[in-house]
């Protein structure tokens, strides 16, 4: 394998690893676009607002019975909205989990495809003595003595890209990303 392929793999890993870093953000974006709010929920909110408006127009001392009746309806609607919200949170969690799983599956398919494509070719050929005693591990899966196989090269590239992205993030965001408490 030529050095241009090694650079290609490095760039490929950088792009795919960057994609993997943004999976939570992509998942949230897709979830926002889906808008999982039901029409029933919106109708109940509108009815609650109407009841609150009616209640604010009624003098509690003069029309206590009517005020109390509206108050009971408001309490009932608030309880129904709470139960709808709980089910909506569960639905959002399930959909978010499914989206994240699908995006991670895409990431895995890309990486497995890369390993499968270059499984018999060495990425870099070294002198056998340079790779000793880890020569067989580095050469996996191609098995050529003194070679660096695709899996070892992917591990090196992934580690390097992760460090580079962490450094860039620290440079641009500073210490704001750490969760230190004073």
From TrEMBL:
Q: In what way does this protein cross or attach to the membrane?
A: Multi-pass membrane protein
Q: Which InterPro entries match?
A: Get1, Helix_hairpin_bin_sf
* One GO BP: tail-anchored membrane protein insertion into ER membrane
List the transmembrane segments.
Answer: 6-23, 95-118, 138-162
Q: Does the keyword Protease apply?
A: no
Lineage: superkingdom: Eukaryota
* Keyword annotations of the record: Coiled coil, Endoplasmic reticulum, Membrane, Transmembrane, Transmembrane helix
GO cellular-component terms in the record?
Answer: endoplasmic reticulum membrane; GET complex
Give the matching Pfam families: CHD5
Coiled coil segments of this chain? 34-87
* GO molecular function terms attached to this record: protein-membrane adaptor activity
Cite the Gene3D superfamilies for this sequence. Answer: Helix hairpin bin
Q: Where in the cell is it found?
A: Endoplasmic reticulum membrane
Signal peptide position in this chain? none
Q: Which family does it belong to?
A: Belongs to the WRB/GET1 family.
Q: How is this protein named in the record? A: Guided entry of tail-anchored proteins factor 1
């Amino acid at each position: 394998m030529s050095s241009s392929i090694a650079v290609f793999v490095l760039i490929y890993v950088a792009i795919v690893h960057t994609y993997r870093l943004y999976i939570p953000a992509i998942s949230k974006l897709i979830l926002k676009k889906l808008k999982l709010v039901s029409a029933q929920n919106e109708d109940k909110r509108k009815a609650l607002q109407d009841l609150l408006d009616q209640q604010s127009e009624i003098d509690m001392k003069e029309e206590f019975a009517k005020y109390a009746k509206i108050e009971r309806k408001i309490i009932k609607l608030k309880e129904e909205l709470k139960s709808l919200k709980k089910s909506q949170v569960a639905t959002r969690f399930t959909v978010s989990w499914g989206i994240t799983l699908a995006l991670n599956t895409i990431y895995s398919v890309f990486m497995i495809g890369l390993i499968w494509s270059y499984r018999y070719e060495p990425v870099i050929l070294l002198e056998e003595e340079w790779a000793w005693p880890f020569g067989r591990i580095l050469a996996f899966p191609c098995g050529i003595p003194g070679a660096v196989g695709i899996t070892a090269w992917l591990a090196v590239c992934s580690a390097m890209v992760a460090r580079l992205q962490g450094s860039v993030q620290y440079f641009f965001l500073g210490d704001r990303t750490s969760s230190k408490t004073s």
